[in-house]
Amino acid sequence: MKNLILIGCLLLIFTSCEKKPRYTQNSEQIEIVKAAINDYDYQEWEKLMSHYADTAHIYYNTRSNVLSPKELAEFHKKNDVYFSTRAFEDENREYEMVEDNNGKTWVNFWGLWKGNLAANNKQIIIPVHITYQFIDNKIVTEYGYWNSSELQSELQKINTEKSATDSVQEPQAVEDIQEVIDIKDEDLE
């Protein structure tokens, strides 16, 4: 009887001390993030939205303005009009999954985003960090952070150059100038 109690206590001790890994670079959730990044790169908006829970909250460079999965495609399409090409570099991607102290599952992504501006073909490279919270293999929260100051500066420069170009008037033909038209009309009378 003592042996049975001793074996039971030892089993209890060994099983209670078993710790699940809280950090990994291989998981089903990481594969979902890889698929989501790929869907973004190839502008597969329906596939991209399929990785999110319907009630997911998406925050890009803010904690106050929230996007829903339904708004995500429009957000990206609106930003894509400025670029002839854009995607994350394949060779500079890092992923990790962690379980926080509250038992929440998060996947972190770090990568270099590259885009060529449509107006002047200037290449913009932006380091990006995105963290995704998962519940039941669906993204429920996403926080994305990057510094877009170089991009904003280039877009302002393009708009300034465009405004300057637009303000230069085309030379008018002599026949189109109002004073010349008035003189011609007087000659006809």
Automatic annotation (TrEMBL):
Biased composition (Acidic residues): 176-189
Species this chain originates from: Xanthomarina gelatinilytica
Regions crossing the membrane: none
Name this polypeptide is given: Nuclear transport factor 2 family protein
Location of region: Disordered: 162-189
Family annotation (InterPro entries): NTF2-like_dom_sf (IPR032710)
